[in-house]
Every structure is written in C-alpha cells, then in structure tokens.
C-alpha cells in the first residue's frame, strides 16, 4: 500500500498518473499548499524539502520517497512497468524524464510565476520563460515526429512530460503548429489511467485551460501569496 501526499499541480499529477497507470493500490492525502500544510513537522518528516508530491511505501517498512521524478522511478521499479531494465532503453526513458525535470517543469513553472502570479507584470521575464517553454515544446515536437512516444514504448517519461505540457495555456505557451506534440497530447490524454490520475486529489482541467476567467483569477490571487513567499511547495 502506498500513501500519496499530493496537491492539484503538474508534479502532483505525475505521481497520481503513475500510480493509476501501474495499478498500484494507494491512499490519497491532499496537502493544502495555500495553508502551508507542506511545512508541517509531520509532512517534513516524510519530505525534508517541504514540497509535494511525496509517498510512503507502507509495505516496505514505511519507506518515504520525495521528488516527483524519484517517485516515478521508484514506482516503476516496484511494479516492473513503464521503465525498461535493458540499459540503453532505460537510459532513453530517464533522459526524457530528466528533460521534463530540468527543462519543461522549471521553465513552465517560472512562466506561471511571472505570467499568472507575480503582482507586477515584468514583460522581459514573461517573454524569457514563455519563449524557452515554446523552444522546449519544439524539441518534443521534433522528436515525436519520428515516433509515437518519447522513448520507444509508452513510459514514465511520457507521463511526466504530459502532466506539464497539458497546462500550456495556463503558462501562456502556444502549441500552434506543433502537430506531433498535439497528437501525442491526445494519445497520452486518452489513456484511462491518465484520465483518472488527473482527478487526484481534484480535477482542475478547466482552470488550467483558463476558460473560466473568474475562477482562474481567484486561483491566481490565492497562489500569489505562496509565490511571493518564494515557495510553491511543488516538486
């Protein structure tokens, strides 16, 4: 049994998507980032960095794992799915997982800060992160022109990148003209496990698409206090 500590963020969804895709039994504990629950002593005992998601493997002596990418690798190895054991195939998956963790996630996260949350609109910063996000999307699009998924077969690399790229409208990053990326978004998003995973602990798809302006503005206002405190609580 896995205990999942999470919030409705791209990194949180990475963990819940993996759990759903792998068919691993788990219990969800929703962490309220706005209330600072990620900084409580109880949560810090699980995740010293004070960020979601985190898991505890109750069947392995209450073994805690933090950092979303590390969680995905741990779960994939636990169930023997979505991460090959052959060295080169495994490396390809991990390379694209690191691409998300080192590129897509940080750039889109900073685009969110300056485009959505920061009280002042600093256009050079907005342009910087949106343009880099678009460049990284182009890298994905070029790679996906040659194959259906990022690393041979469907893997944790697809789950991780998809959880972030799907929120491109919230970051103000266009995918217009990126036909292979758009096809891949649809392919991954049509999977039942993925669809279940993005509803844990709650589904905020409409908000991330920025279709409901009032709700989006209210969310941004609440998030602003976390961002200006220099900690999103999201890993």
TrEMBL record:
SUPFAM superfamilies per the UniProt record, alphabetical: GST C-terminal domain-like, Thioredoxin-like
Pfam families: GST_C, GST_N
Domain GST C-terminal: 86-219
Domain GST N-terminal: 1-83
PANTHER family: DISULFIDE-BOND OXIDOREDUCTASE YGHU, GLUTATHIONE S-TRANSFERASE-RELATED
Family of the protein in this entry: Belongs to the GST superfamily.
This protein's name: Thiol:disulfide oxidoreductase
Species of provenance: Parahalioglobus pacificus
Record lineage: Bacteria, Pseudomonadati, Pseudomonadota, Gammaproteobacteria, Cellvibrionales
């Amino acid at each position: 049994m896995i205990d999942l500590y999470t919030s409705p963020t791209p990194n949180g969804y990475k963990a819940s998507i993996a759990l759903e895709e792998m068919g691993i039994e788990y219990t969800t504990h929703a962490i309220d980032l706005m209330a600072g629950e990620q900084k409580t002593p109880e949560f810090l005992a699980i995740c010293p960095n004070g960020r979601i998601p985190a898991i505890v493997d109750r069947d392995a002596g209450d073994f805690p794992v933090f950092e979303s990418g590390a969680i995905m690798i741990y779960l994939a190895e636990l169930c023997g799915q979505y991460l090959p054991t052959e060295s080169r195939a495994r490396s390809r998956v991990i390379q694209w997982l690191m691409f998300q963790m080192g590129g897509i996630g940080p750039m889109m996260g900073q685009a969110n800060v300056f485009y959505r949350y920061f009280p002042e609109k600093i256009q050079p910063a907005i342009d910087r992160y949106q343009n880099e996000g678009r460049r990284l999307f182009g890298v994905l699009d070029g790679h996906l022109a040659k194959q259906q998924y990022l690393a041979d077969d469907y893997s944790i690399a697809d789950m991780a990148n998809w959880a972030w790229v799907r929120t491109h409208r919230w970051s103000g990053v266009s995918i217009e003209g990126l036909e292979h990326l758009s096809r891949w978004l649809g392919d991954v998003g049509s999977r039942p496990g993925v669809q279940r995973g993005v509803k844990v602990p709650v589904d905020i798809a409409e908000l991330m698409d920025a279709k409901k302006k009032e709700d989006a503005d209210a969310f941004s206002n609440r998030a602003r206090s976390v961002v200006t405190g220099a900690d999103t609580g999201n890993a």
